[in-house]
Specification:
Length: 465
């Protein structure tokens, strides 16, 4: 790949497209917004069902893996502050196949995530219109967002920044209201902590349940890599990247663990996570159970907004990813073309594959559509994180001791934590075979990885001729 092609691929990876100088709060808020999505707002129904109140421990374990990832990414992003981040790192420190496959996987995972998110949006809208078939909402939401992405979009970073603010404000509000209800601050009687130990105890499914739920809770933290992806737009990466990475991880831990702990304390876990299917956000169910006027409807609007924001961002991201691969010769040439207004409309059309899958599943399997799509994306993101940690091991061997000492943020006890992270991610990948809705995740991804590897070899042969 030429430097020009690498630059094109790297730049388009920064699909959270921010103004030229991305620093401090914007970088942190965009990463928080990227990580806070349907994995928390809707997927927590599944994690609560698997682990009960002990899902709190599962989120803490996921936070530990996210911390390892954040340190590994921060080190590499400071040394190589290029947009494109881990795709470029993998190509430099591992091999060209790793660089290609991690980019292709990340792009396709985003496409599949789009399908999961529009499915979630359909579930949320059904809160107000339960008699309308879910697929109609999925179709209407998808059409609107594709139309939006077909136009020239400016200042997307500002747009996503404010949507991230809505998500964060909603979680902070939930935490404040929840603590007030639990400890009786205000007119209602205190709920207390009884729900943590009743209904089967704190560990109703034992430690097995905690581990099984980790297959989804760990994906709730996937999004921290966005900071490294946008590193190329940072004016002072050696300052802003470590600061933002520390902020994002600790804030996510605070938001996730507190929000989930409050949820299973406010409402019995078997009421918010007891169903084997997804019918709405447990955050909305918690507010509804608390009998706060209009609070459930307001929270439902917030989680709907969060889903729409995630769809819009991921659609932008996957479109530019396919466009860049087309320009780099790793995908069909037609994906690398743009319309008159500068939008890669053909890559946008290809990016709607996840939407088409969502519509079909909403028609034929509405009760399981979200998990089927979300589960398919899980293995892809686990692969991306595995490649990042493997790259970090090679990165540490390659840089000089002087450069390492000068890093503003370094992982302790290297290579212990990188190896631990890899082992945990591999164990989680194996565990997906035992979680309903995720059993086909790894096999499906294996087929995909074989396919893109074949396409990679074909592209290499064409270039060699």
């Amino acid at each position: 790949m030429t430097d020009q092609q690498r630059s094109a691929v790297g730049t388009t990876l920064s699909a959270k497209a921010v103004p030229e100088e991305v620093e401090g709060l914007h970088l942190t808020m965009m990463a928080i917004g990227g990580a806070i999505g349907v994995g928390l707002f809707l997927g927590s129904s599944v994690t609560i069902r698997l682990a009960g109140p002990a899902v709190i421990l599962s989120y803490l374990l996921g936070a530990g893996i996210a911390l390892i990832m954040s340190y590994a990414l921060a080190e590499m992003a400071v040394v190589h502050p290029v947009a494109g981040a881990f795709g470029i790192y993998a190509e430099k420190y591992l091999n060209a196949w790793a660089g290609f496959s991690v980019r292709a996987t990340y792009g396709v995972a985003q496409i599949i995530a789009i399908g999961a998110e529009v499915t979630a949006a359909g579930i949320y809208i059904s809160f107000w219109f339960p008699s309308v078939p879910q697929w109609i909402w999925v179709l209407l939401v998808s059409a609107a967002l594709v139309a939006l992405n077909s136009m020239q979009v400016n200042r997307l970073g500002e747009f996503e920044y404010w949507f991230a603010m809505i998500k964060v404000a909603a979680i902070i509000g939930f935490i404040i209201v929840g603590l007030s209800l639990i400890f009786g601050i205000g007119p209602p009687a205190a709920i207390g902590l009884a729900n943590l130990t009743q209904h089967g105890g704190f560990l109703p499914a034992g430690w097995k349940g905690v581990w099984l739920s980790l297959t989804i809770t760990v994906t709730s933290y996937m999004g921290v890599e966005i900071i490294a992806v946008t590193a190329g737009e940072a004016e002072h990466p050696e300052v802003s990247i470590p600061h933002a990475m520390r902020s994002i991880v600790w804030r996510l831990i605070l938001f996730y663990v507190l929000a989930i702990a409050i949820m299973v304390t406010m409402v019995p876990w078997n009421r918010t996570g007891g169903s084997s299917t997804l019918s709405g956000s447990p955050f909305v169910a918690a507010y509804a159970a608390a009998n706060i006027p209009f609070a459930a409807a307001i929270m439902n609007f917030v989680v709907l907004t969060a889903a729409l924001s995630s769809v819009n961002t991921n659609l932008y991201l996957s479109t530019r990813m396919l466009f860049s691969l087309g320009q780099g010769g790793y995908a069909p040439d037609w994906m690398g073309r743009v319309s008159r207004n500068g939008v890669p409309h053909r890559a946008l059309l290809a990016s709607t594959a996840g939407i088409v899958a969502a519509i079909l599943l909403a028609i034929f399997a509405p009760k399981n559509a979200f998990l089927m799509l979300y589960g398919t994306a899980v293995a892809g993101m686990l692969f991306v994180w595995l490649v990042i940690l493997a790259t970090h091991l090679r990165f540490r061997r390659a840089i000089t001791h002087e450069r390492l000492v000068s890093l503003p943020m370094r992982m302790w006890a290297h290579p212990l934590f990188s190896v631990v992270g890899i082992v945990l991610l591999l164990a989680i990948s194996v565990t997906t075979f035992f979680v309903e809705g995720l059993r086909w995740s790894v096999p499906a991804f294996s087929v995909f990885l074989s396919l893109i590897s074949f396409l990679y070899l074909c592209s290499r042969r064409r270039k060699a001729v």
